[in-house]
Amino acid sequence: MHHEIVIVGAGMAGLICGKTLQDSGREVVVIDKSRGLGGRLATRRLANTHADHGVCYLKPKGNRFKAFIQDLVDRNVVSLWSDRLHTLNAEGELLLDANPSARYAAPNGATAIAKDLAKGLTVELGQVINAIRPIDQGWQLTSQNPDFDLTASVVILAIPAPQALPLVQMIANFEFIQQIEDVTFAPSLTAIAAYAPELRSQFAATNLRGVTCDDKILGWIGFDDTKQLNPTQPTIIIQSNAKFASAHFDSTDLPAIAQQLCDRAAEVLALPPIATPELLQIQRWKYAFAVNPITAPVLAATTRAPLFCIGDWCGGNRVENAFLSGLAMAERLG
Ligand SMILES: Cc1cc2nc3c(=O)[nH]c(=O)nc-3n(C[C@H](O)[C@H](O)[C@H](O)COP(=O)(O)OP(=O)(O)OC[C@H]3O[C@@H](n4cnc5c(N)ncnc54)[C@H](O)[C@@H]3O)c2cc1C
């Protein structure tokens, strides 16, 4: 089937781009390899609850993203989570943010934002695009599924640079490939822990919501259930720092790594029950944060048919950068 525009990647960049293009009358389809929407805007369903194991919160800086968030607030998709979080400094001291700064989160999980954006969009999930070939009408995309048949006049890759590279290496110009090749990402190992409901009051007594850690192994500890309206049990997200994730990413004993993250969080917060969750899982993010993003919000190839890259790494390494990149792409195609 031929489409005017195919966007590969249903994260923030691909979805806001697709939605904006469709709203302006363009014919768009969004493809993603995952079974769910949102990419790193990710929520894990647990037995009786859920937790955001990707994006922790949204902290809008610019006016366009502020307006986008306000619209989500007005429609009860997100709400203000906290305007003062904590920092654990290298000396092990827990400090409350000196300056207030609004952080927003989705009470039903971060993927609620992606689901909201995808309303009315044609999205095909579970298709790993593994090759793009030039054809007379533009591009042919192939996936691991032999029955997949897709051609497009315009292709937009809204995926992390290292995942875009193998798709464009044989079809695009040298400068375009070089810029993609130069972008590296830091990984993250993220423990997702759920606790006995009776621990809720003990955790609540700490008044902690989220702690950015300058620690030998930790990057972030989030009391994720504090985002929910009626939480049933405490859930904590514990992110490693990039150094720890690089060293242990291919560990054959990931449950032990998850336990190590819990043990360390219990130790630095002096909260022993954190070490004994009822349920403990781990998520490996190979491409968590762009280390050296490019400055332009859109990367365009010099090819016969239009081919672009967008994503958080086109401008930064946060959701707001993915949002601005997606919008810039849509505006460029007008
Ligand atoms: C643990 C963690 C915590 C974070 N915390 C925050 C935070 O608190 N605040 C913040 O602003 N940012 C945070 N970030 C960063 C934020 O998640 C990203 O900046 C943003 O979500 C990137 O959006 P994107 O659309 O560019 O890419 P992605 O969300 O990565 O979307 C890319 C999509 O492309 C799909 N894809 C890739 N290759 C293919 C292929 N070949 N075929 C089909 N589909 C493909 C993927 O499945 C994915 O859905 C965090 C990231 C991580 C990992």
Q: What can be said about this structure in brief?
A:
The protein has about 325 residues and is an alpha/beta fold. It has helices at about 10-25, 65-75, 110-120, 160-170, 175-180, 200-205, 240-250, 255-270, 320-334, and strands at about 1-10, 30, 45, 50, 80, 85-90, 95, 105, 120-125, 130-135, 140-145, 150-155, 185-195, 210-215, 220-225, 235-240, 280-290, 300, 305-310. Strands 1, 2, 9, 10, 11, 12, 18 and 19 form an eight-stranded mixed sheet that branches.
How many strands appear in the DSSP assignment? Answer: 19
Bound molecules: flavin-adenine dinucleotide
The biggest beta sheet reads:
8 strands, mixed
Separation of termini?
23 Å
CATH hierarchy, class of the largest domain:
Alpha Beta
Number of helices: 9
Shape: globular
Strand content range: 25-35%
Order of helices and strands: EHEEEHEEEEHEEEEHHEHEEEHHEEEH
Structural class: alpha/beta
Question: How would you describe this structure to a colleague?
Answer:
The protein is built from nine helices and 19 strands. It has 334 residues and is an alpha/beta fold. The chain has two domains: 138 residues, 3-Layer(bba) Sandwich (FAD/NAD(P)-binding domain), CATH 3.50.50.60; 171 residues, Alpha-Beta Complex (Polyamine Oxidase, Chain A, domain 2). Strands 1, 2, 9, 10, 11, 12, 18 and 19 form an eight-stranded mixed β-sheet that branches. The protein starts with a strand and ends with a helix. The mean pLDDT is 97. It binds flavin-adenine dinucleotide (FAD).
